[in-house]
Amino acid sequence: MADPDPHPATFDGGCDCRAVRYRMRSRPMFVHCCHCRWCQRETGSAFAINALIETDRVEVTGEVDRVDTPSCSGQGQLIARCPRCRVALWSHYAGAGTRLSFVRVGTLDDPDALPPDIHIFTSTKQPWVILPPDKPAVAEYYKSAEHWPAESLARRRALFPGR
Ligand SMILES: [Zn+2]
Ligand SMILES: [Zn+2]
Q1: Among all ligands shown, which has an atom nearest to the Cα of 88?
Q2: How close is the Cα of 23 to the center of ligand 2, in Å?
Q3: Residue 142 C-alpha to ligand 2 middle, in angstroms?
Q4: Which of 8, 11, 13, 78 could form a disulfide with 92 if both were Cys (CB 3.0 to 4.6 A apart)?
Q5: What is the distance in A from the centroid of ligand 2 to the CA of 37?
Q6: Residue-wise pLDDT tens digits, 92-108
Q7: Cα(52)–Cα(163) distance, rounded to whole angstroms?
Q8: How far is it, in rounded angstroms, from Cα 88 to Cα 9?
Q9: pLDDT band with cut points at 50, 70 and 90 for residue 125
Q10: In the predicted model, is pLDDT for residue 65 greater than 60?
Q11: Which residues hold their Cβ within 5 A of ligand 2, which is an ion?
Q12: How far apart are CA 93 and CA 40, in angstroms?
């Protein structure tokens, strides 16, 4: 038996004007808190919180604009935005493509439900941000095999067979 889950297995969210709503149909595989300069610029804040989940587990009501946006890797990312209020809801990065969504946790109705599993790119963390001592933190990126739970690694293998 798995541990009892204090949060429901679905997570709803959407943009400010409510033209776009989404539902994550399960917990994400992993949650990144990214302190890189790109995320700081894109959010106008100190970090971005991204829940990594299979795109086919996200039900969307309404249409999104996928905006081609430069990224740290140089390969670009597609940011899904509400066509009306322009709030950014999730991203697809070139490496994983559109099968994997990086859902912006701040757009959930209850963003408290998905705290970060890891802090990344802490080399550019804003100095006033104090990280929780019980969560892993890495200067830049990391190997998922070293930090993801086995179940999440299995989900990723199912998503990208042959990798
Ligand atoms: Zn909107
Ligand atoms: Zn980042």
Answers
A1: 1
A2: 23
A3: 13
A4: 78
A5: 7
A6: 998 889 999 999 999 99
A7: 17
A8: 23
A9: very high
A10: yes
A11: 34, 36, 39
A12: 17
- How far apart CA 42 and CA 45 sit, in angstroms, is 8
Q: Distance, CA 21 to ligand 2 centroid (Å)?
A: 24
Alpha carbon of 61 to ligand 1 centroid (Å): 11
Are the beta carbons of 37 and 104 closer than 8 angstroms?
no
Beta bridge partners of 48: 34
Instruction: Output the six-digit token pair for 5.
Output: 């889950």
CA-closest candidate to residue 63, choices 113, 9, 17: 17
CA nearest 86: which of 17, 4, 34?
17
More confident residue, 4 or 52: 52
**Any idea which ligand is nearest the CA of 107?**
1
C-alpha to C-alpha distance for 136 and 117, rounded to whole angstroms: 7
**Which ligand is in closest contact with the Cα of 141?**
2
pTM of the model: 0.93
How many Å apart are CA 133 and CA 124, to the nearest integer?
18
Residue 149 CA, ligand 2 centroid: distance in Å: 22
CA 42 to centroid of ligand 2, rounded, Å: 9
Q: Quick one: pLDDT at residue 2?
A: 54
Number of Cβ within a 10 Å radius of residue 33: 25
Q: Which two tokens stand for residue 108?
A: 């959930």
